[in-house]
């Protein structure tokens, strides 16, 4: 069987919330632990992407280290996977510039995620009607940098959420455009494939019409991986549900109740509709109590590990440096061939 090179990245948003964990990080760990020995896995903390929105330098520095500690705490093994900071590998930005010279502006205008990010930054629900005067060039072109993140390692498989599928298609288009323009018979870049992973969309505990988010001004709307058992119970107890008797899974008519069922099902790797059957004669009080217990059981080990790691700055810096060295070797080999094909030897 041919080996795969799997790449994915996450922004340094500090301590992830439950939605980040169930939506991406748990899947990364599962991919790592089930991948055949000849597969290669790279997981990156994408600091350059964070700059597309205003950042406090001290907070960003702390968030980068916290995210590294979190990835280790949830189970990413630096002896099995290459774990590194994107901004420690210059090849990302160099390749992004090269790829931008192959990217039609019309393709970038069709990207929807930058609109979503602007709306999120303004705590707005409308993802389409966004004032473009607030749009900086980095936010507009960051799908090209995302493509460079993937192609710098000639990744063959990329686990991303549904909201990033459009970006992966752009990445494939750019890989194909570069291959076609430079030695068509000898493509340098594979066309990366989307990795299907179980994706659980976890909604805000206070506004189940939107995703759980760190940008929400209401801290009770999200559960962080550092929350204590009492904080988890309080947040779940205050979660928005409805006054309908019995428990059923109906994301449209009962989004709050369905969100709790989704969380409970995700904690035990079950189907939310099947879980709902077990609660059809029970009330919201029982459901909330069980959700709180399940979430506490899920995060208590990574929470304890994270507390240990956050104080181990020397160890975290060592892991980051080692990962960057391994990533640089791969990315520089790619860039050497890219430069040669472009006449930049």
Automatic annotation (TrEMBL):
Query: What InterPro entries does the record tag this protein with?
Result: aa-tRNA-synth_I_CS, aa-tRNA-synth_Ic, Rossmann-like_a/b/a_fold, Trp-tRNA-ligase, Trp-tRNA-ligase_bac-type, Trp-tRNA_synthetase
* Enzyme class, spelled out: ligase
By what name is this protein known? Answer: Tryptophan--tRNA ligase, mitochondrial
Q: Where in the cell is it found?
A: Mitochondrion matrix
What family is it from? Belongs to the class-I aminoacyl-tRNA synthetase family.
GO cellular component terms attached to this protein's record = mitochondrial matrix
Keyword list (alphabetical) reads: Aminoacyl-tRNA synthetase, ATP-binding, Ligase, Nucleotide-binding, Protein biosynthesis
Q: Has UniProt tagged this entry with the keyword Signal?
A: no
Give the PROSITE patterns listed for this entry.
AA_TRNA_LIGASE_I (PS00178)
GO aspect biological process, one term: mitochondrial tryptophanyl-tRNA aminoacylation
Name its species. Amanita thiersii Skay4041
Q: Name one Pfam family in it.
A: tRNA-synt_1b
What are the EC numbers?
A: 6.1.1.2
